[in-house]
Design a protein that fits this description.
Blueprint lengths: L1 E4 L2 E3 L1 E5 L3 E6 L8 H9 L9 E9 L2 E8 L3 E3 L3 H13 L6 E6 L2 E7 L5 E4 L13
Parallel strand pairs: 4-5, 6-8
Antiparallel strand pairs: 1-2, 3-4, 5-6, 6-7, 8-9, 9-10
Length: 135
């Protein structure tokens, strides 16, 4: 449990994917004030090097809604390592199966935590910018 002020306490699960993630389960990701709560958790004394913060809503055993506050960046549309960390936290807390679809603001990702311990992520790769630069 993480207390960020006298009125707000969050049950958290912390996972490392090579970078730190703090996952909290919420009833509705759209109603969470990510811009307010995200930086408070990111900079909490429990995380001396700061952390990424994932807010996840379990829809059913195969689907998760997801929003993320990335360490040093703010809210982003997607985070691959965060989606993987979210699945691990959900499985460790007996909330989902080991293979789920995660609905991020930037699109869906299919995440699988295989029995051999590996994590597999499948999703679209799209060109979002093309340009030229003179050096």
């Amino acid at each position: 449990t993480l207390k960020i002020n006298p009125e707000q306490t969050f049950k958290i699960t912390c996972v490392s994917m090579g970078n730190p993630h703090c996952i909290t389960f919420v009833n509705d990701v759209q109603s969470i004030s990510v811009d307010e709560i995200g930086p408070k958790i990111e900079n909490h004394p429990l995380f001396p090097e700061r952390t990424n913060v994932e807010f996840i809503q379990i829809l059913n055993k195969q689907e998760i809604n997801f929003r993320v506050w990335e360490r040093g960046v703010g809210e982003t549309l997607a985070c691959g390592t965060g989606a993987c960390a979210a699945l691990i936290a959900a499985v460790l807390n007996n909330k989902t199966d080991r293979e789920v679809t995660i609905h991020l603001q930037g699109g869906d990702l299919d995440i699988q935590w295989a029995n051999d311990g590996n994590i597999y992520m499948t999703g679209p790769a799209e060109l979002v910018f093309k340009g030229e630069m003179e050096i």
